[in-house]
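In this section we walk through a basic example: taking a raw amino acid sequence and producing a predicted 3D structure, encoded as discrete structure tokens. The instruction is simple. Fold the sequence below.
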Amino acid sequence: MSGTFNSVQKSQRFRQSAMPFIGPLLLLLVVGFNIPVLLIFKYSLCGPQGLTVANYESLVTTPVFIKVVANTFRITIITTLVVAIFGYVLAYWITGLTSRSRNVALALVILPFWVSVLVRTYAWIVVLGNAGLVNRLLQWSGLTVSPVAFLYNDLGVTIGMANIQLPLLVLPLYAAMIRIDKRHLQAAASLGASDRVIFWRVFFPQTVPALLSGVMLVVILCLGFYVTPAILGGGRVPMVANMLDTYINSIPKWELASAVSIVLLILTLVLFGIYRRLDARATGHV
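The resulting token sequence is shown next.
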């Protein structure tokens, strides 16, 4: 009993001693994030005659907004599927390498984090442009006569977004895969299960929570993507973040922009809550 009481006292003293260090960070968080979010929420409810929900009603009844949201979800779903498939295959392949090769492969996966998203996005113009490496290779091999339009459409945006999101899925998947007890796989093999059965009935189910949590993280980030759709889409691939830029800079409608931001924030928080539950289940903290 006394031991528990002493641990509680130590915990309280630690919290009190840490407050001078945590206080400035909390103040920065409140001033730099919480207050601006509250102001955005206030702007979203502003109208010519005071507080109103007309801005939210306008979004729901505006065909352009509905089209942009639908296009955002469509590209997000396609990108997430591409990242999930390639990410799972890549993570599974890395787990089968030797220790040295595995370290090299992980270093290559982490390497893109050291390069700016803007630089990586512009690099795809060099690779996928009409005079880019891919089109030159296709024409040189005789597969195409004229350049293939990889850029300024949904395909270019999907390729660019998938490239940026891929490491975010590979790393947690790899972490989940290496924690799987190999004895489970050996037990299934000793009972006569084929490699395909072992994978789908033993290995894959144990990686599903990590896969789902990674997928939710990719979805959350894709919904708010701005730089890549703006550059690789060339203004022809409208997404929610680009609509916000239009409402703020091109046709200043701060109230509508605030309403779009609040809707996107609420959706992101819901998806983040789902991601946290899946991540806790994947790490065994549920």
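Looking at the output, two observations stand out. The beta strands are 46-47, 50-51. The chain has two domains: 1-44, 54-282. In the next section we compare this with other chains.
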